[in-house]
UniProtKB/TrEMBL annotation:
Pfam families: Exo_endo_phos
Official protein name in the record: Exodeoxyribonuclease III
Species: Streptomyces kasugaensis
Record-linked PROSITE patterns: AP_NUCLEASE_F1_4
PANTHER family for this protein: EXODEOXYRIBONUCLEASE III (PTHR43250)
GO molecular function: double-stranded DNA 3'-5' DNA exonuclease activity; metal ion binding
Site location (Transition state stabilizer): N155
GO biological process: DNA repair
Alphabetically ordered keywords of this record: Hydrolase, Magnesium, Manganese, Metal-binding
């Protein structure tokens, strides 16, 4: 595994008609993690469901047209797991992981939430269950001499540098103090023990943002959020040499409201 890309496709069937297929054909990535696929495998065109040169695993949500995560790998995984042992969330299309030589790679789509609604309560329940799993995964992998990389749409901007209009969003889901504190725990060596790879390679700068609303001129003004992360165990994070957001050249060239986040590691 040398290069890994993660992207929320905002509906894979739609993305496939807007530019995802040529993007996938042209990428140098060894692993591609997708979120918000919103389709059953049988609903996807052949060149998207099982493209040449890739092994794929699709984990759709039981609720039709919602969520869904996928993994594309150049080599066949040694093991695949859908969900993280949660009675509530394993059928919700929000987590899939695969074992490759020396590393477990996962695609995560954390619930988005909305303050004062059941959606926010769902997000909080997911977070409460998922952090202990992340800790156990890291510990189990370390005992086996393996690294971990959890990629995806975490739907939380961690710091003020991670969204353009942070002052206006302090009471909005995605930038709430308790959500940001939870992400701090993911990154705290005494708790989760993971490293935000993109931030580690881009310290002290605003962004690089990975999501822009379709409303207004957010994309043109780069008024975005950085909510798509690659979270790695420290040993793997130390091997990261380059990270970039594959921002479209113009608004009309986008095939999602998110942009692919790509990290290259020393092999």
């Amino acid at each position: 595994m040398h290069t890994v890309t993660s992207v929320n496709v905002n509906g894979l069937r739609a993305a496939a008609t807007k530019g995802f297929v040529p993007w996938l054909a042209g990428t140098d990535a060894d692993v591609v993690c997708l979120q918000e696929v919103r389709a059953e495998p049988g609903q996807l065109p052949d060149e998207v469901r099982e493209p040449d040169g890739w092994y794929t695993v699709h984990a759709p949500a039981a609720a039709k047209g919602r969520a869904g995560v996928s993994l594309y790998t150049r080599r066949e995984p040694d093991r695949v797991q859908v969900g993280f042992g949660s009675a509530e969330f394993d059928g919700s299309g929000r987590y899939v992981e695969a074992d490759l030589p020396g590393v477990t790679v996962a695609s995560l789509y954390l619930p988005s939430g909305e303050v004062g609604t059941e959606r926010q309560e769902e997000k909080e329940r997911f977070m409460a269950e998922f952090l202990p799993y992340l800790v156990a995964l890291r510990e189990r992998s370390a005992a086996d001499g393996r690294e971990v990389l959890v990629c995806g749409d975490w739907n939380i901007a961690h710091q003020e540098a991670d969204l353009k209009n942070w002052k206006a969003n302090r009471k909005k889901s995605g930038f709430l103090p308790e959500e940001r504190g939870w992400l701090t725990d993911v990154l705290d060596g005494a708790h989760g023990g993971y490293v935000d790879v993109v931030r580690a390679l881009h310290p002290g700068v605003e962004g690089p943002y990975s999501w822009w609303s379709y409303r207004g001129r957010a994309f043109d003004n780069d008024a975005g959020w950085r909510i798509d992360y690659q979270m790695a165990t420290p040993g793997l994070a130390a091997r990261a040499v380059k990270a970039s957001v594959e921002r479209a050249e113009s608004y009309d060239r986008r095939w999602s409201d998110h942009a692919p986040v790509t990290v290259t590691f020393d092999s």
